[in-house]
Amino acid sequence: MRECLACTPIRRTSWGLTDPATTSESNVEHVVGVGPWEGPWPEGEHWDRELLENGDRRNVAGGYRYWAMDAIIADLDTRRHEFHVAVENWEHDFNIGSVVRTANAFLAREVHIVGRRRWNRRGAMVTDRYQHVRHHPSVPDFIEWAKSEGLPVLAIDNVPGSELIETFDLPKKCVLVFGQEGPGVSPEIIEAADAVIAIEQFGSTRSINAGAAAAVAMHAWIRRHVFEQRVN
């Protein structure tokens, strides 16, 4: 039986740990991660022997320190949420990496890239290694897939006739679709969507970027279906 994440002891060395009474910002270099495992190595197939020996400096949650990547993915797969995220990629949008990173943080079922297969991974901060990403070469291909899975397509864009996400009851199973920086969601997606949802804004800017919009929309889903906070 795999060890419970909350019960797994994490033995840390002094990497990144400082005594505020004896150090200052000027002479402390922040190091991400943990050093080699101290003491007898733990048993279990999910542990990565190389990480135990050399330390783990990956951008992973504390409970996953020293775990093999495949073991982390397998554990995430046992509890992924039921919403999907899709983002259009016609112009190699830099926001896609940020969307993937946020999808990993909120444990989306899958991320769907619609359009070009290659996308800018820089903003993902390597989280795409732990997140299932599926490619659809065209809007019709993506819509056909969503229908075959019985998933409502919810386009997120501030356009005339859209409904406010603050008062929209997001379905538990759905795919949230985001457009590109500038043009937003394509007319083809808008036409095929089961609903078009806007994020209320109060300042002078016309819109927020896809990365920010994705974070707002995914968190709205989390509030509704994880914390069971109903909309008015």
Characterise the protein shown here.
- The protein has 232 residues and is an alpha/beta fold.
- It folds into two domains: 10-68, no CATH class; 83-225, Alpha/beta knot (3-Layer(aba) Sandwich).
- It is 25% helix and 13% strand.
- The protein contains six helices and seven strands; from the N terminus they run ααβαββαβββαβα.
- It has helices at 49-54, 69-77, 95-105, 139-148, 187-192, 210-225; strands spanning 83-89, 111-115, 133-136, 153-156, 163-164, 174-178, 195-198.
- A seven-stranded parallel sheet has the order 3-2-1-6-4-7-5, sandwiched between helices.
- α3 (95-105) links the parallel β1 (83-89) and β2 (111-115).
- The N and C termini lie far apart (43 Å).
Helix-strand topology string? HHEHEEHEEEHEH
Net shape: elongated
- Portion of residues in helices? 25-40%
Number of strands: 7
**Spatial extent as radius of gyration:** 21 Å
* Gap between N and C termini: 43 Å
CATH secondary-structure class of the largest domain: Alpha Beta
Structural class: alpha/beta
Mean pLDDT: 88
Q: In the CATH classification, which architecture of the largest domain applies?
A: 3-Layer(aba) Sandwich
CATH structural fold name of the largest domain = Alpha/beta knot
Features:
7-stranded parallel β-sheet; 232 residues; elongated; Alpha/beta knot; single chain; alpha/beta; disordered N terminus; 2 domains
Quick overview:
The chain contains 6 helices and 7 strands, in the order ααβαββαβββαβα. The protein has helices spanning 49-54, 69-77, 95-105, 139-148, 187-192, 210-225; strands at residues 83-89, 111-115, 133-136, 153-156, 163-164, 174-178, 195-198.
